[in-house]
Amino acid sequence: MLRAAARALTVSSLNPKVLALADRHLGGLVARRAQSMQEELQTNPAAYPFNEIIYCNHSNPQSQGQQPNKFFREVLALCDYPHLLDRSETSFMFSSDAIARAREILGLIPGKTTGGYSHCQGIEGLRDAIATGIASRDGLPSYSDDIFLTDGAAAPVHMMMHLLIRGNKDGILCPIPSHSLYTDSMILRGATLVPYYLEESRGWRVNISNLKKQLDCARSKGIAVRGLVVVNPGNPTGQVLVEENQCEIVELCKNEGLVLLADEVYQENIYTDQKKFNSFKKVARSIGYGEGDISLVSFHSVSNGYYGECGRRGGYMELTGFSSEVRKEVYKVASLSSCSNISGQILMSLVMNPPKVGDESYPSYRAERDSILTSLSCCAEAMVSTFSSLKGMTCSKAEGGISVFPSVCLPPRAIEAAVAMNTEPDVFYALRLLESTGIVVVPGSVFGQVPGTWHFRCTIVPHEEKTQLIISRFKAFHEAFMEEFHS
Amino acid sequence: MLRAAARALTVSSLNPKVLALADRHLGGLVARRAQSMQEELQTNPAAYPFNEIIYCNHSNPQSQGQQPNKFFREVLALCDYPHLLDRSETSFMFSSDAIARAREILGLIPGKTTGGYSHCQGIEGLRDAIATGIASRDGLPSYSDDIFLTDGAAAPVHMMMHLLIRGNKDGILCPIPSHSLYTDSMILRGATLVPYYLEESRGWRVNISNLKKQLDCARSKGIAVRGLVVVNPGNPTGQVLVEENQCEIVELCKNEGLVLLADEVYQENIYTDQKKFNSFKKVARSIGYGEGDISLVSFHSVSNGYYGECGRRGGYMELTGFSSEVRKEVYKVASLSSCSNISGQILMSLVMNPPKVGDESYPSYRAERDSILTSLSCCAEAMVSTFSSLKGMTCSKAEGGISVFPSVCLPPRAIEAAVAMNTEPDVFYALRLLESTGIVVVPGSVFGQVPGTWHFRCTIVPHEEKTQLIISRFKAFHEAFMEEFHS
Prior knowledge:
Chain A has 487 residues and is α/β, with parallel strands linked by helices. Chain A has helices at 16-19, 28-43, 70-80, 90-93, 96-108, 124-138, 154-164, 180-188, 208-220, 243-256, 280-286, 324-335, 342-352, 362-389, 412-420, 425-437, 464-484, and strands at 54-55, 147-150, 170-176, 192-199, 205-206, 224-231, 259-263, 296-301, 315-320, 393-394, 403-404, 407-408, 439-440, 442-443, 454-459.
């Protein structure tokens, strides 16, 4: 028999929607360069004028030394190996409320083990705990039937896109700049992205008249706009929306029949006393809109907050204003992956129902939380103040979220140099920063930005020493860069 | 302002591909009836001539009382709460090899915690361990770069479908009967299902000439057939393919340029000394086909095997014969959900690299494994022997997998009664079984079957007492049923 040398599969025969996903999923130019520099530094520590790469390009705190919350991990360990609950030593090694919580959680699970498939929406008792947490946050009822426990926040976003998108004549309003989850999920399903720019000069507020204009424009082109994505607190932009702006968004969705997809994963990351997080559900109810008025999905996950449990892949979405018929279809999509991981489900319930005053773990829980949030807050303030003070740079307040997103007015000669290298100017700036300082940031073009403006996303880090190092290196680099390309 | 009472979202406006998913995702008629009977029994234990519902409709052993493997759970608990590794009590409470393994695993993870995002393919050191396990299973090299760690086995199946399916002119060859994962994934992406019937009279073997006929027929209709799904050991059919049959499948895929999607999740569930599990990769290499000849994906998960860790959502796919360009596109799709849960990744590495002779945990690991596999094997044999002995019933050997799939020759009067109730005859049989005995099985129509034949899937359970109970009740029911509908 002849042996054909040809492989079965070529790139050109793959789903073009997958091919259309940006190459940044392969790391992007800046991240790839950082990776190779890191390897170089390992074999030759003197290769660069710095001894480490500082990753401000993503938020993955535990991989960078942040310790997980003790109470959360005690409960997870006890639930994973319940045999510990029968040992007398356990009472000396674990806090009493962690032991009580683990017993309570195991009591909620058929078979009392984390090894069984759960209900597709997640373990009912854990959803009850989460609904209680949401109710206490909002001062409004929340129901376990409305909650779908998920592997992080990406999974439920993909589920909702699956449900809403029929083809390329369906569109979703999506903020620019925004992180890639929403745009990628749309690309993969062939949806039309209907972008709306956040208003940088007003602290990345949502400009409703611009939003309405984009909606009308898409509709005039025959696009059925199914929903609107809003990210609050913002990513990468770090704003916390004011209630008045949230009301406008809710009213628009209600009047235009749009599903409001509210990314609320940074709800615990607030760095200013002037603002507080309001869920879109609370805002909708406050202006009198009930279940029958607006379809609203709120996404949350265990990857953010002060605890940063990214690798545990816990998350939920709360659906309100969905008819039971539509909800059945959501359930079908959720059931395609059986259920989310039980350990992540448990962790999500702990996040929404942490130790209370009087519990043995409360003081340590509170201390860990406050210490990290205070560090993040200090870092955010220091970064904003530094970036705002640099020549040609402006930086909106980091009221929440996990990053700042300064704008750099690049000198024409820098832009020319970038063009000559066949690079986007913001990528050029980020690469020069990396080569000079070891600091990795993400160029604004990855998130989208008003044409002709240039930004970068820099992650807020919970280490004061590192913050100081980043700031001083950044300052020196930027001044030298502006000097070099001064015309 | 006027308050429109209309909701934003109606079922008719949803993605028709979601609507096309069968309602069995909402539980199916039999499962829903079982659920309501269970609730009835709780309030009125005398409601039926039995006191419990026996779930033979799915495999979820830990939710039915099976204990998780001790070594696996020790390692997970230590990795969740590494603080335990610093306590002197730990050496009395955990086995020494679990402690050593946890230290080793934490050493592989940046930040030494399970709370960080990993590489999109999974933690490299864990992939190394899995590749070592695969290499030792097959006696062939395996590479960590070929492994993608995933949340169970459903996630990578959906990934591959995303990659391969461009639209409704693309098709995938899929066995009938088969569980719904593959067909649902195709429906959701609008692919054309190209079915091939397994040959029941020859122990559910793959009939290659029939397969080739289906392929040619699909092609003659303009369908681009992209791949072939094969499930070995079979689900729901329980066969273990002979090597000769596997060779034929590999050759067909190679000659026809089909990606071979090999569901090998039941590789450890083998109940006969006459057969052993051969991976498709091993078979392909044994007939001289290398990387350049055939694109092959092997799926595995922690949900099956004797350990049945369904709720932990661990899994992997091994890709061989994929060019680096195609693999980049797989990587893009994988990156859309950041990474799979780290706890599931760890568990998958333990499954593929369990305690060895000489390790402290080896005797207990071995005893747990053998005890469960022996019970499953006894149950499989008892079920097959009973079902084969019943009037009008035939049942192929359960060589592997987790279920038997007997054929019932229903009397014409039973079929008439079903038709009169507007029910599929196999659903009618399963409902009558449930009402009489409390035993829940899945009607064959859920998996697909040759028209005019009727089957049910009955899960093999690892409890000897329960097996006896199931068998005696089933026998009494079936005899009465056949008597009742005797013409």
